[in-house]
Design brief:
- This protein is of the alpha+beta class and 132 residues long.
- The protein has a single domain, classed as STM4215-like.
- It is built from two helices and seven strands, in the order αβββαββββ.
- Strands 1, 2, 3, 4, 5, 6 and 7 form a seven-stranded mixed sheet that branches.
């Protein structure tokens, strides 16, 4: 699973404003989303080792950078969160997703231009391809 797969899947599911950037947000835009890799525990191995492990977690932070109206920014953050809440057994731009957990929506301070930001830490459990 890669951030690019997540971005491409999200593009087809919701209004992304001025786009989705990888590695952070474009601070010159007023309405955009950003996806960054997040640190994680690397997943767990099943009893019997790697050959018996069928899925792995992918950790990302999704940043909602959405205008100066706090209520609209929060509504957009909730829409992004709802996209992943309860998501199971789907294909995300070529990766088979077993389960997604959007975590909590955390407000950030406004940026230097007064743009509201929210962030969520997303965990996506995806199936490992056969033959790994």
């Amino acid at each position: 699973m890669r951030t690019e797969q997540l971005r491409n899947w999200m593009r087809g599911k919701l209004d992304c404003g001025e786009g989705i950037t990888l590695g952070g947000i474009d601070a010159n835009r007023e309405y955009c989303l950003g996806i960054c890799l997040a640190a994680g525990d690397g997943g767990r191995r099943c009893l019997g080792g790697a050959e018996n492990t069928r899925c792995r977690p992918f950790y990302a932070e999704v940043v909602v950078h959405w205008g100066r109206d706090a209520a609209r920014a929060e509504a957009k953050a909730r829409a992004v969160w709802a996209l992943f809440d309860g998501l199971t057994d789907t294909v995300m731009n070529g990766a088979r997703v077993v389960f997604a957990d959007p975590g909590a929506i955390t407000p950030r301070q406004r940026d230097g231009r007064g743009i509201c930001e929210f962030v969520m830490r997303l965990t996506v459990w995806y199936a490992l391809p056969d033959g790994r």
